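Reminder: ligand-aware prediction takes two inputs, not one.
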Amino acid sequence: MATGTFLPVLNEVEKASIRERQPLPEAYLDLPDEEMALRIAAARAALGDRLVILGHHYQRDEVIRFADYTGDSFKLAQAVSQHPQADYIVFCGVHFMAESADVLARPHQRIILPDLAAGCSMADMAAPDQLETCWAELQQMLSPALSERLELAGKPGSRVEGRVVPVTYINSAASIKSFVGEQGGTICTSSNAAASLEWGWERKEKILFLPDQHLGRNTAWKMGVPLDQMVVWDPFEPFGGLTKDELEHAKLILWKGHCSVHVRFTAKQIEQVRREHPGIKVIVHPEVPFDVLRAADDSGSTEYILKTVRDSAPGSKWAVATEVHLVHRLAEEVAPDKTVVSLDQFGCLCSTMFRVSPNHLLWVLDSLVDGEVVNEIVVPEEEKKWAKIALDRMLSIT
Ligand code: SF4
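Here is what comes back for the chain with iron/sulfur cluster:
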């Protein structure tokens, strides 16, 4: 079975190259694994209730074992509000997740990301100026009279009126979330994407969904929306590369973004795994391309994948299409009763999630014990207000 076999090798490569990453004090570079684990546990104990560590499912084993909460973005966003007494929330995940935590946290709480280089390529595919341009162009094409009125008022593209509501995936920057909140839209996660689309269509005729076109398309298709009512907005083309007629006909406008990890899964891999493991079921994350979702037996968020495999009958065999650390841990957890393999035989790794190393975790915790906050993530106040409104909407849509 292919899962897991290459992870120890990867860890060794990472250890050898850790000096090339976010600079760490020399004392944190060459620590033996056991010593690092003991020291992380000691720092955690010293900080007690003042500290909460959140760990995304895609984090590596040596890090996630110290998390007070593990989960997907939705579950971890909920966990932030459950610890009002904690002064420090260390987010073992990527940048946009720590930003969301800062928006949802109490004023006294400080959010820390162990490695500032842990970003998300999908979140980087939607920039605020691109979204502003898109919004103004959508109004010009779909509501020319409104667009003219707003332009005369010196507010092009700046009103909630119009025929489109924006819905952004939580995997986006705080500035994008803020824009969406201000325009009357919401944020979604892979756990509540269908409910969020329903919420949007109850309010407006069309939804602009960003930044992941695959999550938007796959979710809407499963809800019965035909593909010909979906169009892709290319932020690098004037008017998204679309005509007025195409937009008029569309119910869903998909931003041209994707997850570089989940687009590596292919329908061919599904054929192969079925050949190699007769009777195996394939379950995929909805960030995979449409043809992969169609060829699979089932799809859903990471929480859904975990629950479905755990609840399956003894003897079940599963090929799972999501990040390799989750797949590997799930395989170990359910063995020998059930078999779990990665759909990609080399395992799809999120290289930015992988940046959060135990060395970085120990460094930020030791700093907190010494009274110093390093790697703090702070969302500017002007972005917080609307981002919080949008995140609160997200938490209320289930
Ligand atoms: S798995 Fe994809 S969407 Fe998730 S953090 Fe990594 S690059 Fe971003």
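The mean pLDDT is 92. Residues 58, 94, 120-122, 171, 259-261, 323, 350, 352-353 surround iron/sulfur cluster (CB under 6 Å). We will return to this case in the review session.
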